[in-house]
Amino acid sequence: MSYIEIRNIFKIFGPDPKSALELAKAGSDKDEILAATGHTVGLHDVSLSIEQGETFVVMGLSGSGKSTLIRHLNRLIDPTAGEVSFGGEDILSMDIPTLNAFRRKRLGMVFQRFGLLPHRNVMDNVAYGLEIQGQPRKTREAAASKWIERVGLAGYETKFPDQLSGGMQQRVGLARALATDPEVLLMDEAFSALDPLIRSDMQDELMKLQTELHKTIVFITHDLDEALKIGDRIAILKDGKLIQVGRPEEIVLHPADDYVQAFTRDVNRGRVLRAKSIMQPITGPDDGMQSTGTRNIAADTRLEDILPLVLQSDDVILVHGHDTTPIGRITKKQVIDALSSETYDSYLAEL
Length: 351
Ligand SMILES: Nc1ncnc2c1ncn2[C@@H]1O[C@H](COP(=O)(O)OP(=O)(O)O)[C@@H](O)[C@H]1O
Ligand SMILES: [Mg+2]
Description:
Layout: E1 4-13, H1 17-25, H2 30-37, E2 40-50, E3 55-59, H3 66-73, E4 81-86, E5 89-90, H4 96-106, E6 107-111, H5 122-126, H6 128-132, H7 137-150, H8 166-179, E7 184-188, H9 196-213, E8 216-221, H10 224-230, E9 233-238, E10 241-246, H11 248-253, H12 258-264, H13 269-272, H14 275-278, E11 280-281, H15 285-289, E12 296-298, H16 303-312, E13 317-320, E14 326-330, H17 332-338, H18 341-350
Parallel strand pairs: 3-8, 3-9, 6-7, 7-8, 12-13
Antiparallel strand pairs: 1-2, 1-4, 4-5, 9-10, 11-14, 13-14
The chain binds adenosine-5'-diphosphate (ADP) and magnesium ion.
């Protein structure tokens, strides 16, 4: 069993959700149910398993059910039907005090609009969760200082939110969420309000923190590039239904349907795909021998970095894993075929 288990969740908004639930279970979709009953389908039979330590991204257009899904994880809302558990614990059967303790101790949340307390300075905002937990001032300020420094805001402890840029405010939001050392970080469009460059910095920052922290992160975005950049796995929602779950390269190479395909069309494939996603695996020692003497790259190398190498010659390139043992091989044709023609052209223009 995975750390977070979401099982057959339906969420119907409206005065009589149970009646609409029957229609949903019988196969009616969101538009049909709205037309027939006036009820809105938020989620339609969604099941997901999220592993401990992974960055799990939920992606979809506005109204597809992303926020509704994340609100089931902190139980801000209860499902019309279905189950949600953390580490084998059913959160839907928790009483209010248990649920409050669960939220305070095990979850950290980062919101799109930052959600900082305007009359508290950076230190007191970051220490807020620890204060709620009843930690003494010294303990919480020590922890808060550590996280303020970690997110690059040392020196800003006594500033107030309105004295900070959007990017800095969201760093405070991140530090505040991390200060209680939660198991799970829930981030609902946390970077969506930021300017592109700042946003990219925050994505890098989060990924850097994550290589050290190994939190379970559930990150919501409507932006596929963001999803592909930071997600270990990505779930794609449409009209409340789960359309596809997969690693970034699976989503790009094998979109489940036209909806996903439409998202992936403009993706920079050279940046998403890596040697290991397109290589032809080497099946045994004899097989590997045939390719000795050629060039060698790591399995994680991105196609954008492989392209200049393959263009220089027609040699096969060997791909190696964590040690130097070859695990696969790549040809020029495979690299070019895996890139979209737009990506390929733009790389050629840069070279
Ligand atoms: N409290 C609510 N009452 C009625 N409908 C809601 C409520 N919350 C969300 N919805 C509807 O559920 C669907 C999914 O919404 P939401 O989860 O907010 O989407 P997203 O976060 O992907 O933009 C939308 O059609 C939305 O209008
Ligand atoms: Mg939302």
